[in-house]
């Protein structure tokens, strides 16, 4: 099945009732759809937050939306989705292969009657057989959130993806770099891998005009560095701690706030103590309200070893924060080097120099802050939703 085939044209489910607002939307933008968003779990991460933003926008646009998680719920992301009024169905997957998930997913498809199934992360090995058993025509879209080899580290899952992309499932990349990796990994033409950038709720983040005086102001106090990321190896917090230690040793007064949780938390806390910077580093754990942390920061740092298209960088730019980041994955497509921030090699000295050059130059800091805020306007959750709706149809 292809997105443009007649059997995949999306229509409202038979017998469904549309509100006056939804009927008007259908007249303006085509018929309302029934969209099932399927992901692996509801831990806090970029893909999960992207699904939250997408689901909210689809719901606001009048489409019927359901979020299905293979694993159990009860997480902060689950709570955020339910507070937004979204239907969330955790399937309670057991550890390891669980064929019961196929049966439960097929039953949920029969109950919800989706016209679109949009998958995220490694779930196609369960969704494909469930969709076949469901037996009704579906538009199927799969978002690749990371470089193709990084998203599915297991060869079997790459074979599942290869089969899916050759049998009607449309792969969508979050950045051009990710799209290139998908084309190369699965032998697809570039045109077969559309790109839809991630988006956030821009209204939740304050721009530079709403901020306190920047780090170049004498009355400002310590330089406030911020990183919002899962405490996992790929995010390279070890390097960020080394940069912090180097800056403090040079006489720079600063604090580093690490928002997020993950398997490396205790190791990173111990590393900060051994570097002698424990009092300057704050580990906040997982937070639902990240906007307040961006509001209190001066500079955003993300020194990952690989990325797809980080939601946190979009949020930082929307908040008017210059960004210092490694040029990996889709990061270079977000950060305009020298204008909205600085792209660096993963070397402590180079990163420290980038921080110093931005924060010691009032004019550069102000221009980067304003440019970052302007650039973020292109990455709204609404624009992301509209990009996917075009593919769904």
Describe it for me?
The chain is of the alpha/beta class. It has two domains: 6-197 and 380-392, Rossmann fold (3-Layer(aba) Sandwich); 202-376, Glycogen Phosphorylase B (Rossmann fold). Helices cover 41% and strands 15% of the residues. It is built from 16 helices and twelve strands. The strands form two sheets. Strands 3-2-1-4-5-6 form a six-stranded parallel sheet, with helices on both faces. Helix 2 (46-60) packs across helix 16 (381-392), helix 4 (100-112) crosses helix 5 (124-134) and helix 12 crosses helix 15 (362-376). It is elongated. Residues 1-28 have low confidence and may be disordered.
Quick overview:
This protein is of the alpha/beta class. It has helices at residues 20-29, 46-60, 76-83, 100-112, 124-134, 148-151, 155-165, 176-186, 237-249, 265-274, 291-296, 311-318, 331-334, 348-359, 362-376, 381-392, and strands spanning 34-39, 64-69, 87-90, 116-120, 139-144, 170-173, 223-228, 254-259, 281-285, 299-302, 323-326, 341-344. Residues 221-373 form the Glycosyl transferase family domain.
Number of strands: 12
**Overall number of domains:** 2
Helix content: 40-55%
The name of the CATH architecture of the largest domain is 3-Layer(aba) Sandwich
Strand count, sense and barrel status of the largest sheet are: 6 strands, parallel
What's the CATH H-level superfamily name of the largest domain?
Glycogen Phosphorylase B
CATH topology of the largest domain, anyone?
Rossmann fold
Q: In CATH's first tier, which class of the largest domain applies? A: Alpha Beta
Strand content: 15-25%
| Overall average pLDDT | 91
The low-pLDDT segments are 1-28
Q: What is the N-to-C order of secondary-structure elements (H for helix, E for strand)?
A: HEHEHEHEHEHHEHEHEHEHEHEHEHHH
Instruction: State Rg.
Output: 22 Å
Task: Compute the number of helices.
Answer: 16
For the largest sheet, list the strands in their spatial order. 3-2-1-4-5-6
Distance between the termini: 13 Å
């Amino acid at each position: 099945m292809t997105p443009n085939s007649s059997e995949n044209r999306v229509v409202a489910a038979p017998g469904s009732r549309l509100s006056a607002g939804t009927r008007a939307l259908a007249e303006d933008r085509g018929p309302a759809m029934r969209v099932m968003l399927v992901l692996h779990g509801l831990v806090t991460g970029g893909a999960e937050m992207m699904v939250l933003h997408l689901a909210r926008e689809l719901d606001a646009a009048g489409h019927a939306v359901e979020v299905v998680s293979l694993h159990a719920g009860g997480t902060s992301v689950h709570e955020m989705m339910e507070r937004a009024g979204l239907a969330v169905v955790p399937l309670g997957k057991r550890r390891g292969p669980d064929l019961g998930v196929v049966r439960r997913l097929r039953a949920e498809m029969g109950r919800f009657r989706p016209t679109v199934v949009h998958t995220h992360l490694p779930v196609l090995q369960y969704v494909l057989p469930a969709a076949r058993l469901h037996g009704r025509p579906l538009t199927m879209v799969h978002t690749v959130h990371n470089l193709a080899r990084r998203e599915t580290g297991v060869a079997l899952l790459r074979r599942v993806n290869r089969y899916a992309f050759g049998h009607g499932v449309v792969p969508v990349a979050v950045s051009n770099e990710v799209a290139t990796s998908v084309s190369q990994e699965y032998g697809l033409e570039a045109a077969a891998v559309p790109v839809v950038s991630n988006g956030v709720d821009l209204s939740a983040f304050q721009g530079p005009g709403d901020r306190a005086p920047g780090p170049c102001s004498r009355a400002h106090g310590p330089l406030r560095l911020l990183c919002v990321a899962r405490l996992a190896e790929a995010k390279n917090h070890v390097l960020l701690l080394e940069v912090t230690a180097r800056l403090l040793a040079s006489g720079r007064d600063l604090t580093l706030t690490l928002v997020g949780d993950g398997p490396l938390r205790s190791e990173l806390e111990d590393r900060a103590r051994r570097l002698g910077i424990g009092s300057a580093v704050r580990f906040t754990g997982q937070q639902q309200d990240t906007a307040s942390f961006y509001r209190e920061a001066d500079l955003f740092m993300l020194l990952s070893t690989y990325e797809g298209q980080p939601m946190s960088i979009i949020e930082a730019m929307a908040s008017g924060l210059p960004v210092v980041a490694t040029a990996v994955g889709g990061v270079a497509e977000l950060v305009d080097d020298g204008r909205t921030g600085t792209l660096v090699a993963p070397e402590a000295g180079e990163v420290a120099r980038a921080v110093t050059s931005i924060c010691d130059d009032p004019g550069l800091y102000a221009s980067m802050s304003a440019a970052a805020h302007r650039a973020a306007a292109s990455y709204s959750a609404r624009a992301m939703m509209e990009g996917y709706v075009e593919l769904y149809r």
